[in-house]
Amino acid sequence: MTDPANEKVRVVVVDDSAAMRALLTKLLNHDPLIEVVGQAPEPHAAREMIKALNPDVVTLDVEMPGMDGLSFLERIMRLRPMPVVMCSTLTARGTEATIEALRLGAVDCIAKPSGNPLEIAQDGALLRKMVRTAARSSVRAAAVRPAAPHSGHGAATPAPSAGPLRDVVIAIGASTGGVEALFSIIGALPVDCPPVLVVQHMPAIFTGGFAARLDREARVTVVEAKDGMTLKRGTVYLAPGGSHHMELVGGTSGHVRLIEGEPVSGHRPSVDVLFRSVSALGSRAVGVILTGMGSDGAEGLLQMRAAGARTMGQSRDTCVVYGMPRAAFERGAVEKEVNLSALPEAILGACRR
After folding, report:
1. Exactly one of 61, 137, 296, 315 is catalytic; which is it?
2. How far apart are CA 327 and CA 210, in angstroms?
3. Catalytic residue among 123, 201, 215, 272
4. Which of 16, 72, 113, 163 could link 352 by a cystine bridge, Cβ 3.0 to 4.6 Å?
5. Are residues 138 and 179 in the same domain?
6. Count of domains for the chain
7. Catalytic residue at 175?
């Protein structure tokens, strides 16, 4: 894999629109350490181009004629795993497809650049950052991806060793690669689990659809958080993307507070902001930091651990990007690192008496 810190990241752009291919190429080539080596109008041409050029990253349109982007992505992740960044139109169908793409193993997603020149320039900067991050990611074959053990709401069958779950709050932070990890974890939670607060770095247009998709596939109820929501057992509260941070106010039966503010640790919503608010619960909290670029959440998790909370991080081997968990581990914030497949039981174990 090319190290973008030393060599150019080689990219193949796949989109059925010639104008969009040209725009994406222009935006990516603006970075001297990124080089678009090929453009393909549809998946069949892209497949041959990938074989011939062996790129580091592929940008892939979600909705295309013929073989759609999702079908092509599934084949890539099954037969030739590699970093893929999805480009989506701002439609309900496009949003749903993007969430599925992230579940299948796409590293990240971005809305197709649009608007005035300033907005397009901002989109281009974000796209370049995503591609550089993708080039450093660790992508696994689809065949070894953990699958959610249950689909739809219903009574959970506790494990034989399961004991009563304490009156606690679970706080989870994630970024790049987090969608796949959250499907695995939240899909394994029982209906009586303590309330869960989640910050996943994701554009605002996707968080509502992500919450709805998780809700359909999990035993627990999953909602996009709104200001003032009271915490309930068996409910997961996903921070909305955009201009607000998410905090916990009150005890284990407190409520969600959404606050405006500048980015913290480079993000809004910020994992650090959530973790710091949950640290007030002391030993009645469990903190989990998942795959992601950067260090958001490390200081907040350290504060949680110092207050008596149980804390854990996703293991290096199962992270798409071992950035946030590494930063937290190196600061002493992580009590133990756990493989993704074992995280659900580890989280529940920390919640039991």
Report:
1. 296
2. 26
3. 201
4. 163
5. no
6. 2
7. yes
In a domain, 263, yes or no: yes
**So what's the pLDDT on residue 144?**
40
Catalytic entry in 175, 279, 295, 315: 175
4 part of a folded domain:
no
Over the stretch 186-225, which tens digit does the pLDDT of each residue have? Answer: 999 999 999 999 999 988 888 999 999 999 999 999 999 9
Q: Is 146 helix (H, G, I), strand (E, B) or coil?
A: coil
Backbone angles phi, psi at 244, to 5 degrees: -125, 150
* SS3 of residue 237 by DSSP: strand
Catalytic: 150?
A: no
Residue ranges of the chain whose pLDDT lies below 50: 1-4, 143-150, 155-160
Active site residue 201: yes
Kindly provide the b/e burial profile for residues 214-251, where b requires at least 16 CB atoms within 10 angstroms of the residue's own CB.
bbebbbbbbbbbeeebebebbbbbbbbbeebbbbbeee
The CATH number that applies at residue 311 is: 3.40.50.180
Whole-Å CA distances, 49 to 25, 41, 43, 197: 16, 11, 9, 42
